[in-house]
Amino acid sequence: MKAVRVRELGEPKDVLRVEDVEPPRPGPGQVLVRVRAAAVNFPDALLCRGGYQVRPPLPFTPGLELCAEVVETGEGVTGVRAGERVLGSAELPTGAFAEYALMRADAVYPAPAALTDPEAASLFIGYQTGWFALHRRAGLREGETVLVHAAAGGVGSAAIQLAKAAGARVVGVVGGADKAKVARELGADVVVDRRTEDFVQVVKEFTGGRGADVVFDPVGGDSFTRSTKCIAFEGRILVIGFASGTIPTPGLNHALIKNYSLVGLHWGLYRDRAPQVIAECHEQLADLAERGLVKPLVSETLPLDRLADGVQRLADGSTIGRLVYVPAP
């Protein structure tokens, strides 16, 4: 089969190469799947650079999130049948940027019929992250205001839809007019182009001086620092990631005097510590998808030989929505 592999660490455009390799075989508790679509995530770029918390041995195939068809099951696997259309995350080092991949049998979920393969491939990591952040960690309530950074990106676009589905008001922060248009189409009540506007002032005006009840921040750096200037009393700042490349060092005295919470989310920890909650979340997301309340924003589909460019563009922050690898027919 053909697969994209990393043999040395570096920038995605330099280290992702298409190779011919033997298809993997499922071990105990694993499932072999034929990849129908695989979404590109920021951690795929970090994997190439060696900067992700998981560091598979070289060489490896990235690709963490996919929609696929079950081909074969390993020893001890029950409840999963060949031919099923499923979604979930791939098992490194045999990731989803290939024609076939491996998945953990206990982390395979039915793909909603309402979604296309590229959309279903994009429903897992980003939407699970958004759901866990807003509902499990921040306890989002109807009528609250959510400030979403990188609102036209993969995780940010999911957060907008999930917040609106929960009855919240959304202020989306983006960089550029094209991304602002996308955030509005996704349902954001107010969109701020950070290149020309001050989101702190906009949030204060929109909320009558109260501030945002929840800040959804996958960016870090200055986005986090300035968010502390417009967080509401008893607000919650969700620390999702650091796409800016800068990890903030907050002054905790400020959280004390303004009575807000800093709430971390590493969604991957739930896979081993509370997998049943991931299954429950998937049921919620599938229901929202079937009712048309969430729909992943797929901006571009890519063949295998263009994945290196796509992962690099995502790493550079120049993409909108989700880039998705779709194998040749």
Q: What's the level 1 CATH class of the largest domain?
A: Alpha Beta
The percentage helix is 25-40%
Number of domains: 2
Q: Look at the structure and name the CATH superfamily of the largest domain.
A: Medium-chain alcohol dehydrogenases, catalytic domain
> pLDDT under 50 segments (min length 5)?
none
Care to count the β-strands?
14
Return the CATH topology of the largest domain: Quinone Oxidoreductase, Chain A, domain 1
What proportion strand?
Answer: 25-35%
User: SSE string, helix = H, strand = E?
Assistant: EHEEHEEEHHEHEHEHEHEHEHHEHE
Mean model confidence by pLDDT: 95
Instruction: Give the oligomeric state.
Output: single chain
CATH architecture annotation of the largest domain: Alpha-Beta Complex
Describe the overall structure.
Helix content is 32%, strand content 27%. The chain folds into two domains: 2-123 and 297-325, Quinone Oxidoreductase, Chain A, domain 1; 126-264, Rossmann fold (3-Layer(aba) Sandwich). The strands form three sheets. Strands 3, 4, 5, 6, 13 and 14 form a six-stranded mixed beta sheet that branches. Strands 9-8-7-10-11-12 form a six-stranded parallel beta sheet, sandwiched between helices. It has a two-stranded antiparallel sheet with strand order 1-2. α2 (42-49) packs across α12 (307-315) and α4 packs across α11. With 329 residues, it is α/β, with parallel strands linked by helices.
